[in-house]
């Protein structure tokens, strides 16, 4: 049994961050995110237009697994997260 969550991640990197450190951080973030996307647990990621933020959907075994995935993000110290548990909508024609 798995559960779905929508997670909005707002990123705020310090303006004074060293460019090389920033590039390394973003490269590690991308690799980590893509690893979880390949696993099937990070089902989708969308850029929020005009914002340094994304809206992602996760399919996980437990709250604890989602917490561990989010906590492990290299950008975690620079992000504010909003987590919304999802349930099947009664009007969804593709209800799973
Ligand atoms: O750019 C972002 O939205 C932040 C972050 C989340 C995953 C990733 O690859 O980058």
Automatic annotation (TrEMBL):
Its EC number is 5.3.3.4. Pathway: Aromatic compound metabolism; beta-ketoadipate pathway; 5-oxo-4,5-dihydro-2-furylacetate from catechol: step 3/3. Residues 4-92 form the Muconolactone isomerase domain. GO terms for molecular function: muconolactone delta-isomerase activity. GO terms for biological process: beta-ketoadipate pathway. Keywords: Aromatic hydrocarbons catabolism, Isomerase. It is an enzyme of class 5 (isomerase). It catalyses: (S)-muconolactone = (4,5-dihydro-5-oxofuran-2-yl)-acetate. InterPro entries: Dimeric_a/b-barrel (IPR011008), MLI_dom (IPR026029), Muconolactone_d_Isoase (IPR003464). It comes from the Bacteria. Pfam families: MIase. The keyword Isomerase applies. NCBIfam families: muco_delta. Homodecamer. Belongs to the muconolactone Delta-isomerase family. This is Muconolactone Delta-isomerase. It comes from Acrocarpospora pleiomorpha. The lineage of its organism: Bacteria, Bacillati, Actinomycetota, Actinomycetes, Streptosporangiales.
């Amino acid at each position: 049994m798995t559960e779905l969550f929508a997670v909005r991640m707002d990123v705020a990197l310090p303006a004074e961050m060293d460019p090389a450190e920033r590039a390394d951080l973003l490269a590690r973030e991308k690799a980590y995110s893509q690893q979880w996307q390949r696993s099937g647990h990070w089902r989708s990621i969308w850029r929020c237009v005009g914002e340094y933020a994304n809206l992602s959907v996760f399919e996980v075994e437990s709250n604890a697994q989602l917490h561990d995935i989010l906590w492990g993000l290299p950008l975690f110290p620079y992000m504010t997260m909003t987590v919304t548990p999802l349930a099947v909508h009664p009007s969804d024609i593709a209800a799973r």
